[in-house]
Amino acid sequence: GLFRMNPRGKLIRTPGGAERFFTIFVILLASGAFTNLMGGEDAAPGKGVAGFIMQAIWSVVYLATLILFQRGCREFVVAVRRDKLLFLLVALAMVSAFWSDDPFLTFRRSVALIGTTVFGVYFARRFSLADQLRLLSRVFAVAAILSLFFVAVLPQYGIASQAFGYSWQGIYGHKNNLGSAMALGAVVFIFRAFLD
After folding, report:
1. Phi/psi zone of residue 159: left (φ > 0), alpha (ψ -120 to 50 degrees), beta?
2. pLDDT digits (tens, 9 = 90+) for 7-36
3. Three-state DSSP class for 46?
């Protein structure tokens, strides 16, 4: 249906196709996908055009997450109150900029941590466990299919250089990232098999 009951007994609108697509895209991006298009593992984070593009994408993601959280959950303040320890840890990361060797970098990454934490809370509160597993299985299915595509059609991105033994890296910046993503995907599919 269009609406479902949340844990507090309030009627909320169920996530639509665009919201689900956005969630899949964000989780795929958070898994490290497409870093090979941005210079791979060796690219300095936040530096150059690639770093600027990624920062811009993540800024839009964080803004969209706040809007969706407010529209879909309407419980942001409740989430902060309920998950005090989580948000205190995030606040500690922010405060650590005062004694950091590079305060600006620490502050910037702390802002990113806040955005990522808000997305995680949004994902946990907006979707049921069954929906979460469905979305995660789609994320890893897309990652696997795109990785095969990159290996077959765009080998300059999908296959590592001779220094790394021409190993497959797919849509990731390193073969280990691809392996980690596929291992996590396997766990998700196993859980879905037991729960479906």
Report:
1. beta
2. 555 556 778 889 999 999 999 999 989 887
3. coil
Residue 46 zone, left/alpha/beta (φ > 0; ψ -120 to 50; rest): left
Helices (H) and strands (E) in the chain, counts: 8, 2
Q: Which helix (H) or strand (E) holds 3?
A: strand 3-5
* Integer Cα distance of 14 and 127 in angstroms: 8
Q: Identify the bridge partners of residue 13 per DSSP, sorted by sequence position.
A: 3
DSSP at 159 = B
Q: Give the C-alpha separation, 131 to 104, whole Å.
A: 38
pTM higher than 0.70: yes
Cα dihedral 132, 134, 137, 139, rounded to 10, equals -70
Whether the CA torsion 22, 77, 10, 67 is positive or negative: it is negative
The maximal CA–CA distance of the chain, rounded, in angstroms, is 58
Q: DSSP secondary-structure letter at 4?
A: E
* Per-residue model confidence as pLDDT tens digits over 119-155: 998 898 889 899 999 999 999 999 999 999 999 999 9
Closest to 142 measured CA to CA, from 51, 20, 19: 20
Q: Which of 69, 54, 66, 68 is nearest to 18 (CA)?
A: 68
